[in-house]
From TrEMBL:
Residues 14-89 form the EthD domain. It comes from Catenulispora pinistramenti. The lineage of its organism: Bacteria, Bacillati, Actinomycetota, Actinomycetes, Catenulisporales. It holds the Pfam family EthD. It comes from the Bacteria. This is EthD family reductase.
Length: 107
């Protein structure tokens, strides 16, 4: 059976209180996310440079080996805790998220 790796992207806008956001993100949110079952990698990019539109404050990229593993992770108690925490953090910094699955190589 072939599986397709998936990426979960979380794009954070500028926080209203950057100091509080950073403290919570690093002391609470990252430790919660590290407990997600099957998580292969977790990377953050601060101050990404936009080509068009407004910049994001931070982009987080989490990877799993398959969509089933991602679904299992967020259905778990750790996943629910992480999602609840992100919802609470959105009061300080609006966010968007998306899942990227299979890629088509064009070059």
């Amino acid at each position: 059976m072939t599986t397709t790796p998936v990426r979960f992207l979380f794009l954070w806008e500028q926080p209203t209180d950057p100091e509080a956001f950073e403290k919570h993100y690093r002391e609470v949110h990252i430790p919660l996310a590290r407990k997600l079952p099957g998580l292969r990698s977790y990377a953050i990019t601060d101050d990404p440079q936009p080509v068009r539109g407004e910049p994001y404050y931070r982009i987080a990229e989490l990877r799993w080996d398959s969509m089933d593993e991602l679904r299992t992770a967020f259905a778990s108690p750790a996943g629910q805790a992480c999602a609840e925490d992100a919802t609470g953090m959105a009061q300080n910094a609006a966010a968007r998220s998306m899942i990227l699955g299979a890629q088509e190589e064009l070059l």
